Each structure stands twice: as C-alpha cells, then as structure tokens.
C-alpha cells in the first residue's frame, strides 16, 4: 500500500494543475446537476408544503339562498365535536374599477395561514384594513399602504345581479387601506379572466370581521357560509348527519374547497416544472460524466507507457491501477465537496415557475438527502471511472509487448475499400485509438445520443402541449360560447327564449348544477359532482371518448378520472344518490367535462353527466338550478353575433377558455422550447468537442497521412465524415428513443389531466431536427478541419 501512495503522491505533485482542473470540472458540472435535482424535489413538493402550511378548509356549509343568514346556526355547527377549526365568512358584491371577489370574515379564528408576500395581516378589529392577492395588486396597481374605495350593492339587488341584470352599486362607500398582499393556494391557479365576464374575476379582496360588522347589513352578499376542517377524515359522515339534524335539512356539508382544488390543479404544472429540472440535471450529469470520463481515460492512456516500468519495479497490475486512480479519486472527492457547496450556495434560485409562488420557505435550502447522496455518488463515480480506465490500461500494457494488436472496428467492417477521406473519418469517429492519441469516442457519441434523444422528447412533448392548448375540443370545450352565471338561480325561462330568437344560434344545451353540481354519494367517493343537461336545439354536448350520452333517468356518463376511480366501464352499473337514497344507474359513456364552463367547480377529468330528468330524483332539487347554456353559433356567424349576445346577456357570455388544470400547464409551455434549445446546444457542443479533441489527440496520425500525400481538402473531408458519423449515430439512435420518451411523458400528463391519450408524433419537425443536426455537425467540423489542415507534419512528428 505504501508503494501505491508513493506513486499517487508523485503523480499528484506532477499533475497538480490537471487535478485542480479536474476538481473544478467535477464541482461545476456536479453542482449544476445537484442544484437541478434538489430544485426538482423542492419544486415538486412546493404546493403540498404550502397546503400543509396554510391549513385550508376541507369543506363548507353554504346557504341554499343568498337571503338565508343564520349566523347562530353556523356558529353551532362550528362547535360540533368533529370540527377542528371553522370560520364564518361572506362574499360581498362590490363595485370597483375591476371585478373584485370581496371576502369578508364574519368571525376570526386564525383559520388560514397565508403567505404574506408584502406588508402584514390585517387586524381583525380594524374595519378600514384590508388585504389583496397578487392578481388584484397587479390589476388595480395597488401596493401596501395604498387605498381603495369600494361601494356595495344593495341587498335587495343581489338576486337581480346574479340573474345577469345590470345593477349599479347603490350602497354606501367604504374607504379601505391595503396593509398586506397575501397568497393562498387558490391564488396559484388563477387564469387571466376573460374581458367582460363578471363571474370569472380573480382579484381577491380580504376584509376583516370589523368591516362586516360595520357594513354587512347594508352591503349585498351571497349569504353567510361556514368553512370547516375536521379532526379526522373518518368524521365526515357523522359531521354530515349532525349538520342535517341541526338545520332541519336546510344546510348541507359540502366536502372540498377552492384552495384544495386549486392546489391539485397547480400540482399538474409543478410536476412538469420538476420534470424539466430533472431532465436538466440528468443532462448535466451525463455531460459532466462524459467530459470528466474523457479526461480520466486520456490520462490513463498517457500513464500506459509507465505501467511497464512499474511492473519491472515489482508493482502488480492491481497496484499500478490503484496508483493511477488514486489521485483522480482525490480530485473527485474535492470536486464532490465543491459541487455540494455550489448547489447550496445557488439553491435560492429554486423552486422555479408556479412552484416559486407556493414556496413557504424561500431562500437557501440544504436537502441533506439529495446533496449528501449526490456528493457520495460523484466521488464514487469519479474514483470508479478512474479505476476502470486505469485497470483496462494496465491490463492492455504489459512488460513484454505493449498493447495487443486487435483489429480496429474500422478494419473489421472493411472501410479500407472506400475513399481515404471517408475511411479515415469513419475510423476517427468509431475507433478510440491507442496510447497517447486515444480518444474516448464511445463516451462522446453517447453524449450526442443522449442530447438528441432529450431534444426529440422535448419537441414531441411541446408539440402535443401546443396542440392541446390550441384545440378547445380536446379540453372538453365542444361549443362556441357558454351563456349564463353559474352562481345564479334558475334562469331557463328567461334565457332560452332569447337564445332561440337569435338567428346566429344553431345549437343550445341547458346545464344544471354548473355552480358546483349535485354532490352524489358513492361508496368510497362521497362528493362527486353530477351535472344535468337538456338539449334545447341541436346536439351541443361535451365530447365523448366512448359510449353515448345518457338519455333515460337511470343512465349516467362518467369523466375519465371518475371512471377509473370507480373501477367502472361503459355498460356497467354504479350506485348514485344521497346517504339515505341510492339509485342504480347504467354507465352509458365516458365524457370529457371541462371545468371552465362549470365555474371551475371540479378538476378536469372528474364528475358525471346525466340527463336533466335524472336530477329530479336526487335531492335537494334546488341545488341544481339551470343557469348555464352551451351555445353553438351558425356557420358564418362572426364577431357581430358574439357582440349581440354580449349585449343581450351582459357579463355572462364566456368564450372558450382553458380550464385551470391546463392553464397552469400552459404557464410552463416555454420550458419545452427552452429545453429544446438547451439540448440542441449541448449536442452541437458535444460534437464540436469530439472533433477538436480528436484532431488534437491525433496530430501524429494526421501528420503521417499528410506526409504520404493526403491533401488539405481530403483532411477537411475526413473531419466532416467524422462529424457526420457522430451526428448520424445521435439521429438514428436518439430520435426514436426521444420520441418514445416524449410520448410516454405526454401520456403521463394526459392521465393526470384526465384527458384521452391523443399523442401525435411531429414527423416533419423531427425530420427537420435530423437534417439540422447533420448540417450543424458539418458546420461545426469547419474549425477542427481547419486546425487539422494547419497541422505541419514535421513539427508534429518532431514533437512525437
């Protein structure tokens, strides 16, 4: 062992600068990979950690009528033994420069714990203090310390406003001072509200109990509601029965909340962001391994000539290999420490995208598991690679004969029968060479294959994401407009005649329950929203993946996620109903229900659809007013027809919009393009590094070829053939692998969104990628080709 240490110390002193360069390369490349891996974990968990931090409501008890105000009854419900925490609140109808969701707390129990983006929390006893969310701050150009005047709607005008009538605020004016900008999980999934649609406002204003005590009697609101959180999920049946008994059936406990639904939708986008970081980390790891591996392999080949001397001195093959690998292991260990430090020092840049808004602990973060295991993996990988390279070289070089003379790959496939430039270029691309001129081409070709595969996967994924975003029908939006306010009561008697009288309207379907659906109880699934439909004119229905629409009262269509959760298929039965009344219904189809037309009351891919006649047997009947109407315009009807409907139904004509699940995903639609450019650049740099390294390491061979008559044009052609071969290997192997990976990744996204799998392969774009890769590789060959031509045979041979 002492002999090994002596040899390693001597080599380390002799190659101190090389060891420092190796440690820096390992530290920078490994640090980037560790940062991406830790950032991916932090990004993927950000929303879940936000929910755990904020303690959102698990459900609500809401009035059936906006005029039902029973604060004493709600307070009694909040004191039930199953309730861990509760809060009574009201949604006020205000007038301001833009639509505002004004939410007033009636009592203050510290129910939520929001992220305070700026300022502080409002004091419950101060009626003039208010908080807003980020969206309201941006839209109203407000900041902490700013002021806002709001005017309430008269209580008597609430129902008229909900039915779509234009009602001007006529209540008192309140002066508010903004003391904080806060963020709740519901703020993570706020899509831009379409212009002119009142009920899609995303600007939230949070008012204090003191404000409601001072102005609640004179400002119209949608009735008091109770948000609750239970001690245990198993307490829900007992809590539901207690609410029913206390209210005499007037109030219903609804599981689920806007915060929980928004968090679930936001996680779809953060998973994509985390996947992008993971891909970046893997790419950084592969490239670092390729570059460091090349350096270790070259160094092992350079040490090959010394192994015969060491063996003559009594070193065994194992000792010679250990001595050659030990100094690299030291550099690898230092590099692992540097990588860990770099990843920690730059961790404040994580998480990215939507997850950054949900991060409850921004700043530096030390993930001991990832960084610790990552540092260990880096040190072991460098030492292991150096050992393998040194062992193979020690086995190849012997005291008696040097390197065994195996035929090269080029010789085995008979390249000598072709032109000199072609033969030399292919051989330089596939044969690593020998001794000091050895080049680890296999590692470099593998790097190109990985980069091209990642590029193809990213392109495939990005094309499918763009296709989904541009085709509303794939999202479940199978009509032109949705008319009606899902918060209103039944407006069928007023709305249907007006729509039928419009000549530009060719199809109408009425929807019941668009404000949240009828909550059906299914064994194991206590809160599945059911929506009723009734054809009025034509067939305007959501798209069906399989089967047909339900027609009879005992028929039902299920969304993909609901179908999978229930373990049902078309033609089977499912028990639907309330706790004391169930009905066996036949599943007639699998349907895509877009939450965008249903007031975002459910995640995409969930829910059920029945004929309107089926809702009559599912109490309470008044929970499912007919207030949204799906409209298809006649062929040729343009913007004038839309404007006419907007004038007839002010504030309630909704154009095609992406559901929150998809909207969050579209926030990261720039990631595929950014990753594609990154991977393309990596592939190009890898090819360029391969060519330059090959030319530099094979100066002697090129000098000999030049001395026997190879002209400059042939040398450049040989380097071009080398580049073409490396790029072609990346295209032939990497493109199919990338397409498979891209389709697989898109299938995961489709399944998470609850959409049917509709992946396309962008053959034209991939062909362009293949052609651009070959062209770029040949352009990249220009510089090393010129270097090869400038090689002077006499100087190169003299140096040898």
Which properties best describe this structure?
single chain, 800 residues, alpha+beta, 11-stranded mixed beta sheet, 26 helices, elongated
What does this 3D model show about the protein?
The chain has 800 residues and is an alpha+beta fold. The chain is 50% helix and 17% strand. The chain has 26 helices and 22 strands. The strands form 2 sheets. Strands 1, 2, 3, 4, 5, 6, 7, 8, 9, 10 and 11 form an 11-stranded mixed beta sheet that branches. Strands 12, 13, 14, 15, 16, 17, 18, 19, 20, 21 and 22 form an 11-stranded mixed beta sheet that branches. A hairpin with a 2-residue loop joins strand 18 and strand 19. Helix 21 packs antiparallel against helix 23.
Topology at a glance:
Layout (H helix, E strand, L loop, with lengths): L1 H13 L1 H39 L4 E4 L8 H8 L4 E10 L1 E2 L5 E5 L9 E5 L9 E4 L1 H7 L6 E6 L5 H5 L10 E11 L20 E4 L1 H7 L5 E10 L5 H12 L4 E4 L2 H45 L1 H9 L4 H29 L8 H5 L9 H29 L12 H4 L7 H11 L10 H30 L10 E3 L8 H10 L3 E8 L5 E5 L2 E13 L6 E4 L7 E4 L1 H7 L6 E6 L2 E11 L16 E4 H4 L10 E8 L5 H10 L4 E2 L5 H7 L3 H28 L1 H9 L4 H42 L9 H18 L1 H9 L2 H7 L1
Parallel strand pairs: 4-9, 6-8, 15-20, 17-19
Antiparallel strand pairs: 1-10, 1-11, 2-4, 2-10, 3-7, 5-8, 6-9, 7-8, 12-21, 12-22, 13-15, 13-21, 14-15, 16-19, 17-20, 18-19
Helix pairs in contact: 1-10, 2-8, 2-10, 2-12, 8-12, 8-15, 8-20, 8-21, 10-12, 14-23, 15-21, 15-23, 21-23, 21-24, 21-25, 22-26, 23-24, 23-25
